[in-house]
Amino acid sequence: MENQPPPYNPAPIPMSESDARMWAMLAHLSALSGLVTGIGSLVAPIIIWQIQKDKSAFVDYHGKEAVNFQITMAIAFAISFLLMFIIIGVFLISIVGIVWLIFTIIAAIKANNGEYYRYPLTIRFIK
Predict the structure, then answer these.
(1) Of 99, 122, 102, which Cα lies nearest the Cα of 110?
(2) What would you measure as the largest C-alpha separation in the chain, in angstroms?
(3) DSSP track, 80-103
(4) What confidence tens digit (pLDDT) does each residue in 79-108 have?
């Protein structure tokens, strides 16, 4: 039997504080790609969170918050869309859109400042 080296399994390199703040901010702001692609508001934060979560607890926290908020907003948009058939959805979809934009920007600013931010009115699917 030959003496084989252990499999290569590098530990993630810890992230600097400024890089962690930048990636946390991007996890939130990447949701704005949904304005162009439609589905990007959910996919982009998931990708950033999955790639960077093991490198920083701060990025992991903000990534989960961003994903949870985007899932909640997708559900709110879907319900508002269905309610458009009884007119109230027209108003609701506008309100949901404004809330989505404002809270996403606030979260990105807080993350860039190094603060932990918890979105209000969000269902915590990922803990």
Answers:
(1) 102
(2) 75
(3) HHHGGGGSHHHHHHHHHHHHHHHH
(4) 999 998 888 888 999 999 999 999 999 999
